[in-house]
Amino acid sequence: MRRLFTIGYEKAKPDAVIEELKRAKVDTVVDTRAVVSSRRPGFSKRQLAAALDAAGIGYVHLQKLGTPAQGRAAARSGDVGTLRRIYDRHLKTAAAQAALGELLALLKAGRRVALLCYCRDPKACHRSLVAAQVSKRMRVKVEDLLPPVF
């Protein structure tokens, strides 16, 4: 059975995230953030992609799998129910479905993929909803990675 990993970088340093990905033998990180700039050093798109490349891990940004602005606001306020409703609607859009298709193609090609987002807790993050959509379309075992906190 294929495995699909998820990881959040909240409260972690870039090196800890990369070590956790290497431990799980992930070969491709799929960045599921709508906005890839980060106030956390090392986690903006270019810096993260370069660090992953240096570690032998590929980087793919599927922006359309990111959470719309209203969903990000709900997540910041801790309103997971609203986040889920907004994100469920978003996932039905043609753009999100196309991005989901790209993710499925990576998995079908045998890539060991980790979905990346900010939130440490996968249950409070949209990446768990992405993983659920993948599980509906193919057999995968979802494993949430938790890098050590700083």
List its salient traits:
about 150 residues, alpha/beta, Protein-Tyrosine Phosphatase, Chain A, 5-stranded parallel sheet, 6 helices, 5 strands, about 45% helix, globular
Structure commentary:
The structure is a single chain. The chain is α/β, with parallel strands linked by helices. The chain has one domain (2-141): Protein tyrosine phosphatase superfamily (Protein-Tyrosine Phosphatase, Chain A), CATH 3.90.190.10. Helices cover 44% and strands 17% of the residues. The chain contains 6 helices and 5 strands. Strand 2, helix 2 and strand 3 form a beta-alpha-beta unit. Helix 3 packs antiparallel against helix 4 (80-91).
Order of helices and strands: EHEHEHHHEHE
- What is the residue-mean pLDDT, rounded to a whole number? 96
| Low-pLDDT stretches | none
DSSP, total strands: 5
Shape: globular
Counting structural domains, the number is 1
The CATH first-level class comes to: Alpha Beta
- Give the number of helices: 6
Helix content: 40-55%
Topology, element by element:
Elements: E1 2-8, H1 14-23, E2 28-31, H2 45-54, E3 58-61, H3 69-76, H4 80-91, H5 94-108, E4 113-117, H6 127-137, E5 140-145
Parallel strand pairs: 1-4, 1-5, 2-3, 2-4
Helix pairs in contact: 3-4
